[in-house]
Design brief:
This protein is mainly beta and 327 residues long. It has one helix spanning 306-326; strands at 27-29, 32-34, 39-43, 54-60, 66-68, 71-75, 83-94, 99-109, 117-120, 123-125, 128-134, 144-150, 156-159, 164-169, 175-183, 192-199, 204-209, 212-213, 218-224, 233-240, 245-252, 255-259, 266-273, 285-293.
């Protein structure tokens, strides 16, 4: 600048230029999704800087994964048992090194898988072997990777993928078989259960009655199954073939008894009935017959016919001649 006398000089002025920090902003689409399936898009186009010079975009998806760039895509593949919120952070940096960040939640869902199984048979006598076949499914389309079987007696099988299980028990107590399944991301199903009935056969295994003569006695024997208590009383009914009731008596399992004298000849039926015995489980009723004769029939030796004697004699004679010839 120059004054009125024409003298000129130089003036120095310091100007402080201040950088304005950027503003981080992003949108996510969709706002929620399924673990392992949904691809989320993170768009930071709404971020701004007064000087218009954002140099970097850094993403942290909250599951240990990161990315860079104004637009990023991400599929959550970490363990998510049910629903989980992940907090996504965006950090933007401008040319002057100033930073700004924004954090938004993202909901990642995992629907519980469904456990179900069939069993064949669902009831039977011990030892009972049952084949269990799991029919598990997952509404999100995830793979079932773990099957947890529990048979209620302390026996469990934990592993997978074992969708078929064969189990044998010697117990006669009904048990609840249960199954719980897990998907590849830790989703856990509700417990599915089924009661399996196991029982020991109870009832009559053997019934015998001996023949006799008028005025004599019949000997009756009743044998019961192993599961039937030896002290169980078996009810016996004796009837003549004409329907006349002879008597009703009882006998303990695995015992013999003599009944008589029986005064009327004929064929008699013995009906044995076990108490408290389910008809579809065992032989609750068994029958046999015996005869009462006027006198015991003779056991005759079969007669040997004259022709048979002659034939045997000729064979013996022929063999003797053959022997003499050879000697």
């Amino acid at each position: 600048a120059c004054d009125d006398a024409g003298a000129c000089g130089k003036t120095t002025m310091l100007v402080n230029v201040k950088n304005s920090p950027p503003t981080a902003c992003f949108n996510v689409s969709p706002s929620e999704g399924i673990v392992g399936k949904t691809e989320f898009t993170f768009d930071a186009s709404c971020s701004s800087d007064p000087e218009g010079s954002i140099l970097s975009y850094e993403w942290n998806f909250g599951d240990g994964s990161t990315a860079t760039g104004a637009i990023a895509k991400h599929i959550y593949k970490t363990s998510v048992a049910t629903d989980q919120i992940f907090y996504v952070q965006l950090v933007v940096t401008d040319s002057a090194g100033d930073k700004d960040d924004e954090i938004k939640p993202v909901k990642v869902k995992n629907s519980a898988p469904l456990a179900k199984f069939s069993a064949v048979p669902i009831a039977g006598l011990k030892p009972l072997t049952v084949v269990f076949v799991a029919h598990a499914s997952d509404p999100d389309g995830h793979e079932i990777t773990r099957y947890y079987w529990d048979f209620g007696d302390g026996t469990t099988f934990d592993g997978g993928p074992e969708y078929i299980k064969v189990y044998t028990t010697e117990s006669t107590t009904p048990y609840h078989a249960t199954l719980k399944v897990y998907d590849e991301y830790g989703g856990e199903s509700p417990v599915y259960h089924m009661e399996i009935a196991v029982y020991a056969q109870k009832g009559i295994e053997t019934l015998r009655a001996s023949n006799t003569v008028v005025g004599g006695s019949t000997t009756i024997y009743v044998g019961c199954t192993e599961a039937t208590s030896a002290s169980t009383n078996i009810n016996l009914t004796l009837k003549h073939s004409d329907g006349t009731l002879l008597t009703t008596i009882s006998i303990q399992c695995n015992q013999s008894m003599s009944y008589g004298p029986i005064k009327t000849p004929g064929i008699y039926t013995v009906i044995a009935q076990a108490p408290d015995c389910a008809a579809n489980v065992a032989e609750c009723t068994k029958t046999t017959t015996f005869h009462v004769f006027e006198e015991m029939p003779e056991v005759k030796t079969p007669e040997i016919s004259f022709l048979l004697v002659v034939a045997v004699a000729f064979i013996a004679l022929g063999m003797a001649k053959l022997k003499n010839k050879n000697s």
